[in-house]
Amino acid sequence: MFSQSTNAATQKISPDLPLTTEQGNLVNQILEFTTAHLNEPGPAIFTVYGDAGTGKSVVLAHLFNQLQTQARTATDSPLAHTENYFLINHPEILKVYREIAGHQQYLLKKDFQRPTSLINRTTKGRVHPDVLVIDEAHLLLSQADHYNNFYGDNQLTSLMRSAKVIILVFDETQVLRMKSFWTEQRLETLVSPYTHAEYRLTHQFRMQASDNLVRWINAFTHQHLTPLPTHVGSNYDLRVFDDAEAMRQAVVQRNREVGLSRVVATSGYPSTLDGGKHYITEGRFHLPWDQYNYTSTPWAELPQTINEVGSIYTCQGFDLNYVGIILGPPVSLDQDHQLAVHLDRYTDVEAFKRRSDLTDPVEIVQVKRQLILNSINVLMKRGVKGLYLYAHDDHLRHYLQQRRA
Questions:
Q1: 333 lies in which domain range?
Q2: Among the four 251, 321, 337, 371, which has the fewest Cβ within 10 Å?
Q3: Schlafen group 3-like DNA/RNA helicase domain: which residues (predicted)?
């Protein structure tokens, strides 16, 4: 039986991991950009674009380790004695980076912060950031959010007021909530007045699957339903289940064998942030949603979470070995064999909060629909070794089972 390591997630993005030639060249390119613009009127902004699993986070981990090593050891470097921070607006991923800091000589846990915390400390004059590295920048708030103690209009705008150089990674297909609504066009409009550069990563590193399956996921999550590919790679396990409980049992077996295997689900089931347990029931399947994780260990690495159902809020940004996904009531197959998205069945009430800059009813519906599809994209791309699917909708489930290209 597999004994799950408590630092499996850190091993996926550790700066000790080898980089590909492209990734190494990108790190060097960003370092050169940073030193070239460090003493100019800022901010200078470097954006790394890339889909889920294209290696964005490991590039940032290497980059930040080199930045801090030079800042703290290289007295003749332009980076000497600079004050630099790594930001991530996701508490579970923040735990991973702080764990990494504990194993690197020149990284400190305090180097890794939530954006709101750094913004508030900067406003009070307690910190004076030179370089900011932002992972999952598509999670930055783009409107005020009193729940998160952010009272500005846009977190990136607030950060740009103080930093000299900002390096961020961005994927518009991982935008999940109205309060962090972004598109590439909105980002590019924001940074266009400043010195900026960009790079796009395209190679899929996470999934040991064929490009056919990645293309199918991308099409599915843009509401283009096509038959599942037959050939998905000799090292990848793709299955569609008629029974959610049977899928759960398969995931449990994979977890015993290789660890880091979990069942996850889309919204569409009872879920309230009231501290209680809320269950997903699909026939024989009956498990609670993920509980708030107060520990320093990421949710997926806690042994007991094999008996919970993960969500985008615990799984986004993480590698799982095998992922079993329940596609909930918000998605179905219509009479024309097209993928239908039902906004009224989405139970994540936080996702659709109103924005003052979105007033066109047609655009609002389109954005909400894409947020739901984005959440599916995030979940489908979690599995390194395998993807197991179960659909709540009978017609969609039978289509996925029977149609293979």
A1: 211-402
A2: 337
A3: 44-393
